[in-house]
Amino acid sequence: MKNLLPTVHVLYENPAWLPPLTVALDAEGFPVALHEVWHGAVDPARPPEPGIWWNRMSPSSHTRGHDESVALMREQLAWLDSWGARVVNGARAFEIEVSKLRQDLVLRRHGILTPRTVLAVGRDRIVEAARTFDGPFLTKHNQGGKGLGIELFHDAGELAARLDSNGYDPGPNRQVVLQQYIAPAEPFITRVELCGGRFLFAMQSSTVGGFELCPADACAAERRQPDVCPTDGSAEFSPAAIGEGDPLVKSYLQLCAAEGIDIAGIEFVTGADGRHYTYDINANTNYNGALGRAIGIDGMREAARWLRRTLANKHTPEDPSVSWAWA
Ligand SMILES: Nc1ncnc2c1ncn2[C@@H]1O[C@H](COP(=O)(O)OP(=O)(O)O)[C@@H](O)[C@H]1O
Ligand SMILES: [Mg+2]
Questions:
Q1: Which of 56, 154, 244, 315 could form a disulfide with 199 if both were Cys (CB 3.0 to 4.6 A apart)?
Q2: C-beta of 189 in contact with ligand 1 (< 6 A)
Q3: pLDDT at 246 over 80
Q4: So what's the pLDDT on residue 166?
Q5: What is the whole-number distance in angstroms between the Cα of residue 6 and the centre of ligand 2?
Q6: What is the pLDDT of residues 141-169, one digit of tens each?
Q7: What values do phi and psi take at 314, rounded to 5?
Q8: pTM to 2 decimal places
Q9: Domains of the chain
């Protein structure tokens, strides 16, 4: 049976993220081929190898010395798209993944409440945008991840002074996102894990340690090294009460279906007004191993199972690459 399944081609930048995925794909019987996306060539005339492609690009790849990766990935996804290749979290999902502005746009389009968000480029435009906020706000890198560039400000003057000091990093393309700060009613945020049109689980993550809340086991290892990750970020993860029947989860599932996102971890913070403000779509997600063991759900295995289900009864041994469709 194993050799009847198509190869899964994993496009990646961060090797630390690979093991949970490759172990899960292997356990489900998929042959796996790995493709580094910090160098490469894209020949439009050349068709992609047969199989399924899985986008594991990280929007924080530039922090590992891979400044080229996001832009190269964009070209590769365009090439895969134009050949009709099946890509898990393909080109549309990727454009959302690498832009907090676009995340806000799609959330709003789907009627989901977000903190007020503005993108600005250039010192004066950033300060002008800051003046339009009534209360505290955060700055973030538009192409974010790992809590990069997240700082809290109370007014435009404070931000102006910070911009004029040495050491403020506006991030890739100098695109700074200013976002209304929602003081959490309780000291946690919630992350909802979705895969293939289904709710997997939701978890709470403590906000006590700072803004770096990547659930990946690899990031937990990094957090123990202050040199690698400047935020304290001693995040703790525990199951969250929200479930698949919740209207917000239903909205997330509709958003993912409409926007071509196969796998996502979507985050919200509950404010003092009791409302849920959604601020991060990880169109690509990592699962926390310790939490997964505690609740008995292996997220990557579920993702691999979902892929297998989409193939069930739809492929033929003669040409497994072309005869299936998304479930
Ligand atoms: N608007 C906000 N109000 C309050 N806290 C926020 C807000 N946006 C982000 N945070 C906090 O910062 C963390 C990182 O922000 P996020 O936008 O998820 O960045 P990243 O994409 O780097 O993960 C969040 O998990 C949350 O704890
Ligand atoms: Mg986040």
A1: 244
A2: yes
A3: yes
A4: 86
A5: 32
A6: 999 888 888 999 999 999 999 999 988 99
A7: -115, -10
A8: 0.90
A9: 2-96+305-311 (3.40.50.20), 98-113+184-299 (3.30.470.20), 117-180 (3.30.1490)
